[in-house]
Amino acid sequence: MRPKSAPIKSLSLSRITARPLSSTPACRCPPSCLALTRRYRHSKFLSLDPSITVFSLPRYASSSSSPSNPTTTLESPTSLEMAPKNKFELKTPKGTKDWEGKDMVIRDHIFNTITQVFKRHGGVTIDTPVFELREILAGKYGEDSKLIYDLADQGGEICSLRYDLTVPFARFLAMNKQIQNIKRYHIAKVYRRDQPAMTKGRMREFYQCDFDIAGTYDPMLPDAEVIRIITEVFEGLGWNGGYTIKLNHRKILDGIFQVCGVPEDKIRTISSAVDKLDKLPWTDVRKEMTEEKGLDGEVADRIGEWVVLKGKQDLLQKLQSTESLAVNESMKKGMEDLALLFEYLEAFGCLDRVSFDLSLARGLDYYTGLIYEVVTQGSAPEVTPGQENAESKPSKKKGKKGSEDDDRSDDPTVGVGSVAAGGRYDNLVGMFSGKSQIPCVGISFGVDRIFSITKAKMAAEKNAAVRNNDVDVYVMAFGQGYLKERMSVCAKLWESGIKAEFLYKVKPKLPAQFKAAEANGVPFAIFLGEDEVKSGKVKIKEMGLQEGHPEKEGILVSMSDMAKEIKVRLQRKRELDEMTRQAEGLRVVHGIKGDEVKDAEKKVEDAKPETTPAAVEATPGTEEPAPSNPTA
């Protein structure tokens, strides 16, 4: 209840409802409420007939309530009052989506895989606000600054949603001067007002998983470890080498621009144009350089001779042997770094995953040294044969309001893009601290793009093994339902760290229990029947066993051994599933010889379970009768 002396700020006319006094029940409110009613009714800006109640004040829920009673509750508005005045389409904003079901399972698997790699390399996590002061983000992203979401003024502070996790990390280091070195990882949402392509993972709200090494170390050692981390993440996700780490060096790119004659004040803008070569043909990029950015055509042609080159140490040797480039100071530093990096990558065993690509530029202004992006076959837009060097055609949909907001998932010229990117940024912390510099290098994984490619790959391979949850055991019962016994079994399994469920029915039918277990692919079931309850035993059954398998009908174990037996069987099943997955990966990805596949399959066959000691106690067909067939 508003105090009597409190001024009334406003009254929304759209919420006013007319109600005759004769139909209004007697008010039970205290005098202060009646005074407030009179104040509204006779206010000058309304000028309404006093015989009409122009609004409904909230009434106290009971006659015993009073404003001084802190337990007083007010009536909630009816659903009719809360309903919007005009109908609208119920949907999420463009470039966003809800996550549920198997999509969440796949995404959580990606998160867990990435996090395990980060921790393996000594990473510690931090968290920062989802929005930052606008001046923190300003001037850090080059031409992409236009994609920052700005917020309305709140209490005198002008803020924006974070564009990435790198700039907030640099701000964090500048504010915490006691931290001079750290391996930090951060998994959180970022926001960009980009043109969405939802099915390809190009969204306006999306997750990034960042790993950064901050501190002063010998050259290229942290950089090499970050690239090693990239390979571990994608191998852990099962990509089996189906990706390429494109790398370049800002000083090499700047040196090429200087030697080719690019004015110093145009280097960053020309760099952002070159960065589009993974999406546009050279003719379009050259046109942007000359017509939009005012670069001389001959200078653009000289740049074009270099930025189309790719390789490894061979390309580096070509640059080193070109006299005009070798004498450039920026080129010298960049080539020294890359030569050292290639040595370290070979020691880490990941040199075969990288490609030295002179077209890679990374448009963000804060990079100062090594830069890299991770691409896969699904990253690039679709290009039909013969169109590689053709100019892109303008869209036919012109003049349509809000067209830049349209989803471009079906546009063949739009690819997923890079699935991870990063580089060295030695001066970013100093932009905030003003004095001390903390060199940093890092990588950012685009989870939504990784998810899009992973899901498309699973669909192509017709892989339907994704489960909605991780339940290991479903506890079932015959006959009387044995609800309390099922609850007790679940409690014992939970105490042992085993994921278990049961059907919330007092007397569930067996088919309904099987349906619930099979719907989520639960690997094991525990059965309770009259005989099991009397003898203090349970029947453990592995779901999905073929006819004729010795354990098709399950095995009997004592209640005291139940959890231990389940753990043994779960571990054995996980090992078998992993061996099967590895065998499938060998066959599909690497295209190895048939004999090697047969060897892998033989290992899987040899690892299949035999009857455990617990099964000897009683199996179907022995002296102890089993319940009715649980496979019904």
Automatic annotation (TrEMBL):
Q: Which GO terms describe its cellular component?
A: cytosol; mitochondrion
Recorded catalytic reaction(s): these are: tRNA(His) + L-histidine + ATP = L-histidyl-tRNA(His) + AMP + diphosphate + H(+)
The record's section on Pfam families has:
HGTP_anticodon (PF03129), tRNA-synt_His (PF13393)
Predominantly, its location class is cytoplasm
Domain Aminoacyl-transfer RNA synthetases class-II family profile, first and last residues per copy: 95-632
Enzyme nomenclature, EC number:
6.1.1.21
- Which CDD domains does the record cross-reference, listed alphabetically? HisRS-like_core (cd00773), HisRS_anticodon (cd00859)
Q: Where is the composition biased (Basic and acidic residues)?
A: 594-609
Q: Which GO terms describe its molecular function?
A: ATP binding; histidine-tRNA ligase activity; RNA binding
Keyword set for this entry? Aminoacyl-tRNA synthetase, ATP-binding, Cytoplasm, Ligase, Nucleotide-binding, Protein biosynthesis
Residue ranges for the region (Disordered) are 59-80, 381-417, 594-632
Note the superkingdom of the native organism: Eukaryota
Q: What class of enzyme is it?
A: ligase
Coiled-coil boundaries: none
Give compartment(s): Cytoplasm
InterPro entries according to UniProt: aa-tRNA-synth_II, aa-tRNA-synth_II/BPL/LPL, Anticodon-bd, Anticodon-bd_dom_sf, His-tRNA-ligase, HisRS-like_core, HisRS_anticodon
BP GO terms, sorted? histidyl-tRNA aminoacylation; mitochondrial translation
The job of this chain, per UniProt, is described as: Catalyzes the aminoacylation of histidyl-tRNA in both the cytoplasm and the mitochondrion.
Which family, according to the similarity comment? Answer: Belongs to the class-II aminoacyl-tRNA synthetase family.
Protein known as: Histidine--tRNA ligase, mitochondrial
Write down the species.
Fusarium oxysporum NRRL 32931
Q: What is the lineage of its organism?
A: Eukaryota, Fungi, Dikarya, Ascomycota, Pezizomycotina
